[in-house]
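INTERNAL AUDIT FORM
Audit reference: QA-55
Scope: verify that the stored structure record matches its stored sequence.
Auditor: D.O.
Record contents follow.
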Amino acid sequence: MLDVVDVGKRSLATYRGVAPDAQLDALSHCAERLRGARCLHLSATPYGGGVSEILRSLVPLYNDLGIVTDWKLIHGDEAFFQVTKRIHNGLQGAPGELTESEKAIYLANSQLNARRLISDSEDYDFIFVHDPQPAALAALSGNRDARWIWRCHIDTSRPNPSFWELLSPYLLDYDAAIFTLPEFIPPALPIRNVRVHAPAIDPLSPKNHPLPEPLARDVLEWIGIRTHRPLVTQVSRFDRWKDPLGVVRAYQRVRPHVPDLQLALVGSLALDDPEGWEVYEELRAATRHDGLIHVLTNLVGVGNIEVNALQARSEVVVQKSLREGFGLVVSEALWKGTPVVGGRTGGIPLQLPEGTGGVLVDTEEECAEALLHLLRQPDEAHLLGERGREHVRQHFLMPRLLLDHLRLLDAMSSARPLPARDIVPSHPSPLSLQGV
């Protein structure tokens, strides 16, 4: 059987006054037509990246609206996740190709996970499959009663043909696909029903919930950050596409002008990302002689609360990605009113329109110039951060993403009606979704 991720209970009503009322009202109406349906989300890891953070908030909200939803994890050995990391990189355009042995590893693990999914004997109406790691399951499980949706979170606009030829035959059995941006839709996609949904953050999660300033300062001092010194932070996986060494070099260009400036590089080491260890070791080697650079991970106790404090108390947050699906950490920082210097790639420009949120850059030199400018112009930086917060409120909070999902499920169930189900009552909190 596949492992089920245990998630807590959430109430959509608690977002009233935080997310736009129009989105909450539309959700309550759309959900009525789907109550009693059964939904599954499949992914590779319960922590360490944007997909897991989204699902941890999204799945409880499905259940709150009466759509019975599970989140399950595929299994895989180290060799499998080495291969899927190569597939991930190849789909984003990295050179190379898989060996026959590596293809066999991907297929064998996918077949094993398909058998485990079948043995679960769950009668799902909708199955979301997140990213390439579990993508073969629609074809291998033989379950054609469910409506299958492939949610691709990465930039597949220019995939390496070798990797795309491996993956695309497995996509024939999907009923729909979701991408972050229209330009991410790959050539010759064998799925006709395609939607574009930007990801979103949960403003009420431990990572994004407001922290009292004294607590935030105490948290930072606890992990070695000196709160009387200025701070620049990048939060991301330890991934070469995030260019953490480029961030270090940009920071080193700024240091002579701001001698007491600190840099925090914060990342999670995830189950499905063995390459992260290599990047982490490279970063440690490159920064070990600079006491103002802090390389922090979940393995030394830096979790959601610590990231929250870092994003809230930094003068500037950096997300200097070379390729990027979306970059949830940009919206996380903006939600806290912190300006962002971001790479001009993927979904980052969507979060940083001109004059809002921060500055887009293409090179290390531009990154350094933008950092120094914002450090020297705190009033301008504050204004950009405040504009960014409102932009996130309107476009990138969890209720909007949930509404996108339910509209897709509603359209799919209209095209192919769901079987009769017992109506599952939702459990709204005393605060009505219709507002007061």
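Auditor finding: record pair retrieved intact. Confidence is low (pLDDT under 50) at residues 428-436.
Action required: none
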